[in-house]
Amino acid sequence: MTTTGATGLVLDLTGTFAFALNGALTAVRTARLDIVGVVTLGMITALGGGVLRDVLLGALPPATFSDWRYLVVAAVGGLVAFGLSRQLERLSTPITVFDALGLSLFAVTGAAKGLELGAGAGQAVLLGAITGVGGGTIRDVMVRRIPTVLRSELYAVPALLGAGVAVVAARAEVTPLVGALAGAAVCLLVRLLGVGFRLNAPSPPGTARDDGSTGRTG
């Protein structure tokens, strides 16, 4: 069983909104763009991963362009972030929290869609991770910085774990909502622990990270 129907749509749109907030706040904080740039970057962050997933699955046109709700939710998220950017900037970790939430929801819905369209278990896990990290990667490239997935505290690893849990739950015929929430919870927990304790995936020995630490796993 996979996370389809109303449950899948709600999770997908929630992730879209969270990632749109994240992308727009990143634009405000790092690029100092105007309203067009802020909303555009928010929409790209929210929709990019899903478009990549659907193209890889041959599910054309991508859901973004066949269901108006994705575009509307992404645009609203970008506008909310633009309008409330000053208030959100006062919070200590708004971008991190929105990013972790979007990553978690997209990892499980991406994996579920892969299973729904006939992908194997391993391929579905990869598709879940691509859905989670794709939009943020495009965002980072557009603002000319190294993508978060390549440099940040555990990022791709949580997405893979969350998608893996969702796929295992689906194969075990666990209730779709329960399986999806379990996968999202695992991804969210690992991502936030990685940020909180500055845990990193291994890098070459002796190399320095942005935080000045050497290439070792925290």
Automatic annotation (TrEMBL):
Keywords assigned: Cell membrane, Membrane, Transmembrane, Transmembrane helix
Classification lineage: Bacteria, Bacillati, Actinomycetota, Actinomycetes, Pseudonocardiales
Record localization: Cell membrane
Name recorded for this polypeptide: Trimeric intracellular cation channel family protein
Mode of membrane association: Multi-pass membrane protein
Domain of life: Bacteria
InterPro entries listed in its UniProt record: Gly_transporter
Pfam families named in the record: Gly_transporter
Annotated transmembrane regions: 6-28, 35-56, 68-85, 97-115, 121-142, 154-172, 178-199
Keyword Protein transport (UniProt): no
